[in-house]
Amino acid sequence: MGSESKKETLQDLLESSEKCASPAKRRFPKLHSILSELGTSVDKFLKFAFSAVALGAFDASNNQKTEYFQRVGAYIQEKLPGIFNTYFPFFGSVFLYQTILMLSDAGLASWSLYDKRWQKKRNLSNLLMAIPHAVCMDYSSAAIQSKRLYALPLPKSDFMWRIRTYQHTPLAGLANWLDEPSRLLHGAIQGYDLGIYLTIGYVGSQALISIYNYVRLNKSTKS
After folding, report:
1. For the whole model, what pTM was predicted?
2. Do 60 and 141 meet the contact criterion of CB atoms below 8 Å apart?
3. Of 135, 108, 121, 153, the residue nearest 200 (C-alpha)
4. What pLDDT was estimated at residue 66?
5. What's the pLDDT band for 222 if we cut at 50, 70, 90?
6. pLDDT per residue as tens digits for the range 69-91
7. Distance between CA atoms of residues 203 and 182, nearest Å
8. What is the enclosing helix (H) or strand (E) of 59?
9. 3-state secondary structure of 188
């Protein structure tokens, strides 16, 4: 198909969509586009926040689930070589539960931010929000357990376990860094700072991509 045929096809599609559009969209196309994008963003935010709070509520619930994961993790640990558990601390009795939580954060972040208009590679970038999702989940869990909305300062029991658990693994340095005092939020840890930095980077990059696509589309329709 030549460039002229592609241009005609694009124009036909645009004209057809304009005819089917509502009067408000035809009269105020830019405003309608902004409001539509805003509505989509709000929907994503609500899914993201609700799923993080729900997972935090699960984490804050009774300890029977933790004991179950410990038994399953111990069983898996017996089947794996000892050196595997040393260098890949994800499936042992003390690691399995945290691994499941992080995988849940990644899955829920990807689900809540998924956009059918985006290409696969762009939707894959939603995985970067797994850590901010984990931060929201962790804060929700702390708030529910303390029975107050403002859970800061975090009790040391909520995060110091990470250093003890991972001290003899390759993740020891990362655990120590995450548990250092926050430079942004008094009473929080640097893991929360990382979540904030990633959120700013994600939102900024997605905004730039959207602007770039919008400008490119306008140029292609005018030419």
Report:
1. 0.83
2. yes
3. 135
4. 82
5. low
6. 889 988 988 888 877 878 888 98
7. 22
8. helix 29-60
9. coil
